[in-house]
From TrEMBL, chain A:
Classification via PROSITE patterns: TAT
Domain Solute-binding protein family, residue spans: 89-456
Species: Tardiphaga robiniae
Pfam families noted in UniProt: SBP_bac_5
UniProt gene name: ddpA_1
Name of the protein described by the UniProt record: ABC transporter substrate-binding protein
Family: Belongs to the bacterial solute-binding protein 5 family.
InterPro entries (UniProt xref): Peptide/Ni-bd, SBP_5, SBP_5_dom, TAT_signal, TAT_signal_bac_arc
Major location category of this protein: periplasm
Keyword Lipid metabolism: no
Top-rank lineage group of the source organism: Bacteria
One biological process term in Gene Ontology: peptide transport
Automatic annotation (TrEMBL), chain B:
Pfam family name, one: BPD_transp_1_N
Family from the record: Belongs to the binding-protein-dependent transport system permease family.
Organism: Tardiphaga robiniae
Compartment(s): Cell membrane
A GO term, aspect molecular function: dipeptide transmembrane transporter activity
Family annotation (InterPro entries): BPD_transp_1_N, MetI-like, MetI-like_sf
Identification of the protein by name: Peptide ABC transporter permease
Main location, first listed in the record: membrane
Transmembrane segments: 9-30, 101-122, 134-156, 199-219, 257-279, 307-329
Membrane topology: Multi-pass membrane protein
Residue span(s) of domain ABC transmembrane type-1: 95-326
Length: 539, 337
């Protein structure tokens, strides 16, 4: 081959590789485009049924949009005027009416409600679905028990279109717990037909397809690649959604998700790095919604059963040595609510989360550490979950650098996401960062999980204090009986105690960030932080 | 020939058994606890134990192993927990995606690398030799994800020539009916030109990324092996006999230089097939590599075992094909075989 020949073939090959411009849309496709919402996110569902074994968080989004629950929440104006679910106001969804009496709640179902396959929704389906949620075990059953919903006997069929839920005990969380994602209403006949002896609740069947009567139904699901949802045009449990079709694509590369948004190819995305959100916000081509996690806090935890962190003075010294503002600025690019540095004269509120009075004060930290008997510091490890390394890694490096200044030498221990839960359960890590947020937005719910001596997984510090338990139990009782004065006193009491004893140091309340095209409106914030397609509009 | 194939396959059996045992043990030795992972964020110890029982992870290791091999014998690779699908189905769906991309990448790479290598070898020290050196060095030194991201940035984000990096087809184009799993071929069979164009456009950037990366070993090997052959006696004789340079290089030298090139090709192919995870991640490509990595991250045993086993089988097959090709190219190998 001569040089000239080679060049000829090389250039023609190069030209051949470059021929095509962007795909040209036919007009039919342009119509489809305007009625279709294209969402891109990092990961997708592994199971379409929230009752399934190990259903992941993206799976919750499918369940939320494809199944109806008896009741939902009203919306109120949240921070920045964005619709935010109203914790205290419920609205009928599948039930057209709810009557709450002393020890039970009665729901009247919509008579014209149908499942996707056309069978009418009856009380039988509701009972079967609720029985299923308290019986399958694992996460759904656990979530139900958080609202004292534990036994199938609590769900009673009154007539074809009326269901009564009996309360096991008085518990303020029972009704809110009926509005979370888990107690969804499933087409019982359809699932029973596909159940097997080994799998009496038909979990294998609902894993792969939706069997509900919600506003959307899944028409195609390729695991790890895409989910396609179509609107259910016979839906009666709310105003007809505007979006006809939702295409949800998994794009693992964060930079590409951003490029897709900025080029206008994708309509919505979440799970972008904070820096990208900050830049997208600044350049103004897209709408960005940033809202605080309800009832959520990122914190530094310490194991209080072992030295040196069994000494409250050491824990306070750490609290004075943390680089709070740097974390918010450099790690989160300002997209977080500070949970530190309240002014010294501020009185404790009956609210959660609320900021502590700690601030970065190295002199004080050193003094406290000397007082505790560690004038030269000590060595320890700080652990974090690699699954959220975008935030956790720089955060831990800043903490490491800052603690080094008061003589506490830390080694960073990165734990793979798959292993994080196991490590938390062991309760052996001396120092770590983690985030917790509760679906139910009540201070006593958060404290019960995180500070109570019953020692749930999220009491990661193994903190036990009889006084704390008394206050938390007191607040739960007072909430159930409606004793406001006692409730307020107990909540203030446990917040104060938590900030004094300081088994964990609150850092900030994280934000959920969603970026979307300017022509998309109707985003609503929900406690589960996933998208509600029913309210979205594409202009 | 048949006896050769049979013999080769026989040799492969022990290594496959070894792979089954080793992957089984290795996945169990991973630090993660799948039960805790799949029990979800608010599970307590009891919930985790329930999940463990459901997954059969509470049984002794040896029982788990026998159950696993019994299922394997029936062609059942188990279920993936992260995607919720049977592993066999997933691999069947995803392997063609990876294979189509890798084969195409390799073809482009060969079309550029072999002429480049030959030209560099025939004119050592010339500008084309330097060009060969520079491109191959650049190709290996640039990490694939970086090349991929740069291509996406330039051709999609800046220039808008390339379609959105959203997998194998445009979002609004429907998949051609499945025959081979290769969208280019399937859409041709279905005479669906729109799907063909879309699949082709989606392939350009990831193919280019892979080609740039795999250019180096092939071009270097071609050049080195051509240089050795060109300085050998029979080439000198051929030249002295007055054969045209073209006949000397293509007919005599190149055919003899092909053996090591073929070996490199097979190694590059099997390496790319498993290792193009990053390309798959960048282009949201629903391939087998990203599948295995995601499974690994979540301690999801079944897909990891399925992936390693599939890869082992692929290696065996590729080696077999290479051995046969050797025989076709070089009669001496045939005699020995």
């Amino acid at each position: 081959m001569k040089r000239r020949d080679f060049l000829k073939t090389a250039t023609s090959a190069a030209a051949g590789a470059m021929v095509s411009g962007p795909a040209i849309f036919s007009s039919a496709k342009a119509d489809a485009r305007s009625e279709t919402l294209l969402i891109v996110s990092e990961s997708g569902p592994n199971n379409l049924d929230i009752h399934g074994v190990g259903t992941n968080v993206p799976g919750y989004e499918v369940s939320w949009n494809c199944y109806d629950r008896l009741i939902g929440h009203e919306m109120k104006a949240g921070p920045g005027g964005v619709p935010y679910y109203d914790r205290d106001k419920f609205k009928p969804e599948l039930a057209e009416d709810m009557t709450i009496s002393d020890m039970s709640a009665t729901f009247k179902l919509r008579k014209n409600a149908k499942f996707h396959d056309g069978t009418p929704v009856t009380a039988k389906d509701v009972k079967w679905s609720l029985d299923r949620s308290v019986s399958v075990g694992g996460f759904p059953t656990f979530q139900m028990s958080a609202g004292s919903l534990k036994k199938p006997e609590q769900f009673v069929i009154v007539d074809d279109h009326t269901v009564r839920v009996d309360f096991a005990t008085k518990d303020r969380l029972t009704i809110p717990d009926l509005a979370v994602i888990v107690p969804c209403v499933i087409n019982s006949e359809l699932v029973k037909k596909n159940a097997t002896e080994k799998d009496p609740w038909g979990l294998e069947y609902t894993k792969m397809q939706t069997a509900g009567g919600g506003a959307y139904k899944v028409t195609k699901w390729t695991a790890g690649t895409e989910v396609i949802l179509e609107r259910n045009d016979d839906w009666v449990s709310g105003p007809m959604p505007k979006i006809k079709r939702v295409i949800w694509r998994m794009v693992p590369q964060a930079g590409n998700r951003r490029a897709l948004l900025e080029r206008g190819d994708a309509d919505m995305s979440y799970e972008l790095p904070y820096k990208d959100f900050q830049e997208i916000k600044a350049n103004g081509k897209l709408d960005v919604v940033s809202l605080p996690f309800s009832n959520g806090i990122q914190y530094i935890g310490m194991n209080v059963t072992k030295p040196p962190f069994d000494n409250p003075k050491v824990r306070q010294a750490v609290a004075y040595a943390l680089p709070y503002q740097k974390i918010v600025d450099a790690v989160l690019f300002g997209l977080a609510n500070p949970m530190f540095g309240a002014s010294a004269d501020k009185s404790t509120e009956v609210a959660w989360p609320q900021p502590t009075k700690y601030n970065t004060d190295m002199a004080k930290a050193k003094a406290l550490l000397a007082e505790a008997g560690y004038p030269n510091g000590f060595e320890t490890t700080i652990s974090f979950d690699l699954g959220f390394a975008v935030v956790n890694e720089p955060l831990c490096i800043l903490v490491q650098e800052s603690l080094g200044q008061i003589g506490i030498k830390t080694t960073i221990n990165k734990i793979p996401g798959a292993n994080w839960r196991t490590e938390l359960n062991k309760k052996e890590m001396p120092l770590y960062t983690n985030v917790f947020s509760g679906w139910l937005d009540y201070p006593e719910y958060f404290f019960y999980w995180c500070y109570h001596g019953d020692n749930s997984v999220f009491n990661t510090m193994s903190y036990k204090s009889p006084e704390m338990d008394k206050l938390i139990n007191g607040a739960r009782m007072a909430a159930a009986t409606g004793d406001k004065a006692a409730y307020d006193a107990d909540v203030k009491g446990f917040v104060d105690l938590a900030f004094n004893d300081l088994p964990r140091i609150p850092l900030y309340q994280p934000y959920v960030n969603v970026a979307m095209q300017k022509n998309i409106s109707g985003y609503q914030y929900w406690f589960h932080r996933r998208l509600d397609y029913r309210a979205l509009v594409k202009a | 020939m048949l006896s050769l194939i049979g013999k080769r396959l026989m040799f492969a059996i022990p290594s496959l058994i070894g792979v089954v045992i080793v992957t089984f043990l290795l996945t169990r030795a991973l630090p993660g606890d799948p039960a805790a992972y799949f029990a979800g964020p608010s599970a307590d110890k009891q919930a985790i134990e329930e999940i463990r029982k459901k997954l059969g992870l509470d049984k002794p290791l040896i029982e788990q192993f026998f159950r696993y091999t019994a299922d394997l014998a029936k062609g059942d690779f188990g279920n993936s927990l992260t995607t919720g699908q049977p592993v066999a189905t997933e691999i069947r769906n995803r392997l063609p995606a990876s294979a189509e991309l890798t084969l195409l990448g390799l073809m482009v790479s060969v079309m550029i690398a072999i002429p480049l290598g030959i030209l560099a070898a025939t004119r050592p020290g010339s500008w084309i030799d330097h060009l060969c050196r520079v491109t191959t060095t650049a190709g290996v030194s640039l990490p694939v994800f970086f090349t991929g991201l740069v291509l996406v940035y330039v051709f999609y984000f800046r220039l808008g020539w390339s379609p959105a990096p959203l997998g194998r087809l445009d979002v609004f184009v429907s998949t051609p009916p499945n025959v081979t799993g290769f969208y280019l071929i399937d859409s041709l069979i279905a005479r669906d030109w729109e799907a063909f164009r879309s699949a082709f456009n989606q392939l350009i950037l990831p193919t280019a990324t892979l080609a740039i990366f795999s250019l180096a070993p092939i071009a270097r090997m071609t050049r080195a092996s051509m240089l050795a052959i060109l300085s050998s006696d029979f080439v000198r004789t051929a030249r002295a006999s007055g054969l045209s340079p073209r006949a000397v290089i293509v007919t005599y030298a190149f055919r003899n230089a092909m053996l090591p090139v073929i070996t490199t090709l097979s190694m590059t192919f099997s390496f790319l097939l498993g290792a193009n995870v990053l390309v798959e991640k960048v282009f949201a490509w629903p391939g087998i590599g990203s599948y295995a990595v995601e499974a690994l991250i979540s301690s999801d045993f079944a897909p990891v075992q399925g992936f390693v086993l599939t890869m082992a089988v692929m290696y065996v097959l590729i080696n077999l094909i290479i051995d046969i090709l050797y025989g076709v190219i070089d009669p001496r190998v045939r005699l020995e075989g």
